Amino acid sequence: MSDGEPLVRWDWIADHAGELAEYTGVHLRLGLLPVVFGLIISVPLGVLCHRWRWLYPPVLTVANILYSIPSLALFMIFVRYTGLTERTVMIPLTLYTLSVLVPNVVDGLASVPEPVRLAATAMGFGPIRSVVQVELPIAVPVVIAGVRVAAVSSISLVAVGQLIGQGGLGYYITRGLQLDFPTPIVTAIVLIMLLALATDALLVLAQRLLTPWSRNKVTAA
């Protein structure tokens, strides 16, 4: 970057708008699919951990150990088995979400008042029906709080995947560093931040839609 050159060249952004949109879509897919997969794994795992408390410590320990492994190291481990593909990025990101989602599912279920469970049993609800129709809906605010953290973290970590050629907007960060050209770097960082903020806002909206009784409490207050 030469002295006097602007930090952001708007003409470059305009010329690459279509390409930026394409990479943004890729980045969003790479960031959010692991959260979906993590939720699919964490909900039943969290239910089991809540039912059988002895299972929770080892599950949480394994999840935290996986989270402590640097993302690049984990990518390199999976490269041997899945190659330089999107799966090599999404599998580690899915594993990372477990350290957040499993505890939130367990905490969410623990927040369900015992009288509610007893009432469900008295109405003839079996264990599975009680979890699906009573306990999980009540646990939604706590679970979504974990999903919000996992989603923002996952969207941020996707860029590291560019080191194996699968990083979405991370492409512009490495490209800008290689060319000593700050515009694509700044653009990529801003877009990643906007994706994280938009995703978080949509999850807050989803929580409000899934928990109408919480809105009624606020209105009544």
From TrEMBL:
The keyword Transmembrane helix applies. Its main location: membrane. The chain crosses the membrane at residues 30-48, 54-79, 138-165, 185-206. It is found in: Cell membrane; Membrane. Pfam families: BPD_transp_1. It is a multi-pass membrane protein. Keywords: Membrane, Transmembrane, Transmembrane helix, Transport. It comes from the Bacteria. The keyword Transmembrane helix applies. Residues 24-203 form the ABC transmembrane type-1 domain. Belongs to the binding-protein-dependent transport system permease family. This is ABC transporter permease subunit. It comes from Streptomyces plumbiresistens.
